[in-house]
């Protein structure tokens, strides 16, 4: 593999990740990828411009990102004009541009244009060509992000079938497609089926990749989550206890995935064992998240919210109100006053303010 091919492969892998919860990591990665793309592909290559665009979006510099996106659009049009609109490189460039449109926040436009691109790829390359399947995958992802879980479920079901037909049932990409299909089923509200699908995906990932593979642990975590969403919290509590312990053993206690499973384990503990157990699990977790992720990370803010609510439920509404006041102030600063998390935390603060007054 040449340096240029390796750079493009790294860029494709980075595109496939959701940077919503880890924007700082994304900023660093796409800054590095931008420099690599400049060195190996050139400044005006679509991948270079797209890496630069994503770096700017994750930094919050949307004004400059829009300028780069316009340059990318011009580069895409130029490729289509020089190579022909149906040339594979022209189609890949169009896919890259639409990814940037979606990541900049215009999901509706991206979904509509991705649907057209999928139609063209099916006509030119066929429905099961790897490039077609990859674009269909992005289309399904943004359909789900746009809120149409029912349509995303259908798209993901077809993708899982086609990946299995092309690569085989045990190929990692097929297993990934099944995991994403289960995710869309849960998002569509079918929690019981989602839990069963994740259990099956976890089993097959364990068989193919190994029981300690991070992707196996990922499917196990989601199995536990959707089991809880299916109102089987006692079962989910046991599942989260196992996956939290295994993630801590395999990835390290301070890995974000380990802390995520520990957080869910603590939540389930409140319903199954009691609030004191949740508090006992959350207190060291919150200290770790504050130290490792930082006080402003969304995971830390989320844990602070539950910690504050537990404080109130354990008989200290005054301290609960104080903790939530500080949390709301920090969330407004980090996420903005209209963010759904901010609004939810503000409601919690109002509740414990009233509870404190009644407690006097």
Automatic annotation (TrEMBL):
Stretches that traverse the bilayer: none
Classification via InterPro entries: NLR-like, TPR-like_helical_dom_sf
Annotated spans, Disordered: 335-360
Superkingdom of source: Bacteria
Pfam family, one: TPR_10
Record's compositionally biased regions (Basic and acidic residues): 335-351
PANTHER family: AAA+ ATPASE DOMAIN-CONTAINING PROTEIN-RELATED, ATP/GTP-BINDING PROTEIN-RELATED
Name by which UniProt lists this protein: Tetratricopeptide repeat protein
Lineage of origin: Bacteria, Bacillati, Actinomycetota, Actinomycetes, Kitasatosporales
């Amino acid at each position: 593999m040449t340096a240029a091919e390796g750079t493009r492969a790294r860029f494709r892998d980075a595109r496939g990740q959701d940077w919503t919860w880890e924007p700082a990591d994304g900023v660093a990665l796409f800054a590095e990828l931008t420099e690599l793309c400049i060195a190996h592909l050139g400044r005006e290559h679509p991948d270079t411009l797209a890496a630069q665009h994503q770096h700017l979006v994750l930094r919050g510099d949307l004004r400059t990102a829009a300028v780069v996106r316009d340059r990318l659009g011009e580069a895409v049009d130029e490729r289509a004009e020089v190579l022909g609109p149906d040339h594979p490189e022209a189609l890949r460039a169009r896919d890259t541009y639409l990814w940037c449109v979606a990541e900049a926040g215009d999901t509706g436009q991206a979904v509509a244009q991705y649907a057209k691109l999928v139609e063209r790829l099916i006509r030119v390359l066929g429905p099961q060509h790897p490039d077609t399947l990859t674009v269909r995958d992005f289309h399904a992802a943004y359909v789900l992000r746009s809120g149409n879980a029912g349509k995303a479920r259908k798209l993901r079901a077809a993708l899982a079938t086609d990946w299995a037909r092309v690569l085989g049932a045990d190929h990692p990409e097929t297993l990934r497609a099944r995991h994403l299909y289960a995710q869309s089923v849960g998002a569509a509200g079918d929690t019981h089926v989602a839990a069963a699908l994740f259990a099956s995906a976890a089993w097959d990932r364990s068989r193919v990749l190994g029981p300690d593979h991070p992707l196996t642990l990922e499917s196990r975590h989601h199995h536990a989550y959707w089991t809880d969403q299916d109102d089987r919290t006692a079962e989910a509590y046991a599942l989260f206890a196992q996956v939290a312990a295994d993630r801590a053993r395999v990835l390290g206690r301070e890995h974000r995935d380990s802390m995520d499973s520990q957080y869910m384990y603590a939540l389930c503990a409140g319903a199954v064992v009691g609030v004191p157990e949740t508090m006992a699990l959350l207190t060291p977790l919150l200290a770790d998240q504050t130290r490792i992720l930082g006080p402003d990370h969304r995971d830390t803010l989320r844990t602070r919210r539950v910690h504050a609510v537990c404080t109130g439920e354990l008989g200290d509404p005054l301290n609960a109100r104080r903790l939530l006041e500080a949390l709301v102030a920090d969330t407004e600063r980090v996420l903005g006053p209209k963010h759904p998390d901010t609004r939810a935390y503000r409601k919690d603060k109002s509740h414990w303010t009233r509870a404190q007054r009644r407690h006097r």
